[in-house]
Amino acid sequence: MSVTNQKWILKERPNGLVKKSDFDLIEEEITDIKSGEILVKNSYLSFDPTQRMWLTDLPGYLPPVQIDEVVRAGGVGEVVESKNDDYKVGDLVMGLVGWQQYCVSSCKPEERLRIVPNIVPMPTLLNILGTTGITAYYGLVELGKPKKGETVLISGAAGATGSVAAQIAKIHGCKVIGIAGGEKKCGWLKEECGIDHVIDYKNSDVKVELPKIATEGIDIYFDNVGGPLLEDVIWYININARILLCGAISSYTSNDVSPGPMNLFNLIIKRATMQGFLVLDYLPKAENAINDISAWLMEGKLKHIEDIQEGLENCPDTLNRLFTGKNYGKQLLKI
């Protein structure tokens, strides 16, 4: 089959927030696919802070997006043509599809394209039942090993991953403190998600509020922010605390490597651990996480929301929403 594909390619590396001039929205004709390939019509794109890091020419867990390459992004869509025996027309697939209407995939492992059940809404698949939920689950449950009564602190707590991690901590009987920006997000975390305490960093000073609330110290810190906040938190960790480095959104719009905390010696004093992790390492056993998350959803123990923008032409602006505080929940775009 022949289709006209629109796609965003990188023209120059952004400085700070992305601009549409950093990219080109171009058209191409897809007239044929090769043996072993599939053609996917994308329906929704996922927007995650790490995508901004991929646009910077710095070492990372995936190579930077190169100039004139399609902008990398996860998404979900439908197979509309297949020359691969493992996929059939009509299959719903999820993986790295890019900022484009159609995706031609050779189905190599690095593209992480997997068939997903067409039984829940696509936004839910990209949110709590996708890498967002899997990240929160394995970061908190397998690495954090929460125990009933422990104090868990979550930065970026109103974000897609942070909100799931916070609720999983509550399911495990922990006292949960969230850090988020704005009354609306903080209210949702307390009233809908049942978080014990929420610090509004936009309207209060975290350094002042944290010791007032974490009166028994911090046993687990699930960090999505990094930067100076990480240093502030390290002062209040307990003996045998676990610091889980999930993200560092505070530094993703900078082309410079941000300095690390100056008080790492407190990890020695407190016999604490600080560990970074990537969801890619846990995808082979994602089913275990999805099973537990699905059960908690059915029991009403997990809440989730999606912020859905529309139109492929709005990809750059949608990415910026993650860094300006405009997004509310999991950031998606419907093509």
Could you give a quick summary of the protein structure above?
With 335 residues, this protein is α/β, with parallel strands linked by helices.
Descriptive labels:
single chain, 335 residues, alpha/beta, Quinone Oxidoreductase, Chain A, domain 1, Rossmann fold, seven-stranded mixed sheet, 10 helices, 15 strands, 27% strand, globular
Structure write-up:
This protein is α/β, with parallel strands linked by helices and 335 residues long. The chain has 2 domains: 3-127 and 305-334, Quinone Oxidoreductase, Chain A, domain 1 (Alpha-Beta Complex); 131-281, NAD(P)-binding Rossmann-like Domain (Rossmann fold, 3-Layer(aba) Sandwich). It has 10 helices and 15 strands. Strands 3, 4, 5, 6, 7, 14 and 15 form a 7-stranded mixed β-sheet that branches. It has a 6-stranded parallel β-sheet with strand order 10-9-8-11-12-13, sandwiched between helices. Strand 11, helix 7 and strand 12 (237-245) form a beta-alpha-beta unit. Helix 3 (131-144) packs across helix 4 (160-171) and helix 3 packs across helix 9. The model has no long low-confidence stretch (mean pLDDT 94).
